């Protein structure tokens, strides 16, 4: 594993083509961190993502970057965990959980009747 923030970011940029920049709320990610990393493991693969600092130099913990291997994984992550942020190009963490999807009941056709 690389040592130091610059090496970690360079490794992530080399390994993963898609970067999601997320501005952190004042208290940080908090209790959502484990749920987010579990979601990334389940949906992008254990070795299919990295999270690194992405903030302004000299400002501690103001943003993170999530690197993933595919645009599909990036879109799903943003839909699940983020809302559009300001400035453009950065996302903010959702304050609420998205609505749970309710599967529709299977339907039958009336063939042969």
| CATH third-level topology | Alpha-Beta Plaits
When the domains are counted, the total is 1
In which range does the helix fraction lie? Answer: 25-40%
Order of strands in the sheet with the most strands?
Answer: 2-3-1-5-4
Shape: globular
User: Rg to the nearest angstrom?
Assistant: 18 Å
Name of the CATH class? Alpha Beta
Largest sheet, in brief, is: 5 strands, mixed
Find the structural class using helix and strand composition: alpha+beta
What is the number of strand segments?
Answer: 5
CATH 2nd-level architecture: 2-Layer Sandwich
Strand content: 15-25%
Q: What does it look like?
A:
This protein is α+β, with helices and mostly antiparallel strands and 113 residues long. It has one domain (5-93): Alpha-Beta Plaits (2-Layer Sandwich). It is built from three helices and five strands; from the N terminus they run αβαββαββ. It has helices spanning 5-15, 32-44, 71-81, and strands at 18-23, 49-53, 63-68, 82-84, 90-93. The protein has a five-stranded mixed beta sheet with strand order 2-3-1-5-4, with helices on both faces. Strand 4 (82-84) and strand 5 (90-93) form a beta hairpin. It is globular, with a radius of gyration of 18 Å. The N and C termini lie far apart (65 Å).
What attributes characterize this protein structure?
Alpha-Beta Plaits, 113 residues, alpha+beta, single chain, 3 helices
Topology, element by element:
Layout: H1 5-15, E1 18-23, H2 32-44, E2 49-53, E3 63-68, H3 71-81, E4 82-84, E5 90-93
Parallel strand pairs: 1-5
Antiparallel strand pairs: 1-3, 2-3, 4-5
